[in-house]
């Protein structure tokens, strides 16, 4: 037993990058995974791959900015697998830009996905976990949730916010035996930078992450570490960066 085996784990943003790799990693360790993202064909293909390898996975097309859709994802996990042990609120977007360029629609999108999406994930998970008197909510922040760099003002605001709401959650859910973990990754090579609309900012970030970024398995191992702990240990926060 590795303490991951048998757990039921909901992962948002499972169609690429960190979420996709974590789904593969945890399923290979024996977890049942419920995969959510907007690109249904991608998560269906991943679920097929996991089930084909002898694992257990379901895919539910989910937009985390729609509260009823993430509720449906968590409820489907409970219906299919009997309970929900972990919710990994991983879905996120990072269209970086300086404030003065006034990409206000992108500010709205970041707030909707990175902040409200996490809150809706918590809202979907909590009633089940309170009833079970057990559970683990993992929220993905960022190094940008600890500091601000050129073009990151709004993204950082959402990721600082994820840390604040996760700390509040930690304080409140103790009586229900629910663990909470914030994971703040540094540069990891994924699709995250592809959606930056400002050419200069995109190029600078792609150059940096291309040089130093690690692969998503680094994140997947840390999620496994956090959820592998014995029931009396709650890993509250993990911050990692590429050694380079
Ligand atoms: P990717 O762009 O590769 O993956 C992002 C995932 O989020 C995709 O699966 C995407 O799926 C999903 N997503 C985006 N919007 C929505 C939405 N409205 N509803 C549901 N799912 C959505 O990036 P990463 O894997 O790198 O990012 C994962 C998390 O890690 C993010 O929160 C990011 O901020 C954080 N992070 C990443 C770092 C890095 O260097 N890579 C560093 C620090 C933090 P789809 O488009 O199919 O909906």
From TrEMBL:
Record Pfam families: adh_short
Signal sequence segment: none
GO molecular function: oxidoreductase activity, acting on the CH-OH group of donors, NAD or NADP as acceptor
Keywords recorded for this protein, A-Z: Oxidoreductase
Cell division keyword on record: no
InterPro entries attached to this UniProt entry: KR_dom, NAD(P)-bd_dom_sf, Sc_DH/Rdtase_CS, SDR_fam
Location of the Ketoreductase domain: 7-191
Domain of life: Bacteria
PANTHER family: DEHYDROGENASE/REDUCTASE SDR FAMILY MEMBER 11, DEHYDROGENASE_REDUCTASE SDR FAMILY MEMBER 11
Family: Belongs to the short-chain dehydrogenases/reductases (SDR) family.
Protein name: SDR family oxidoreductase
Naturally occurring in which organism (per UniProt): Rufibacter latericius
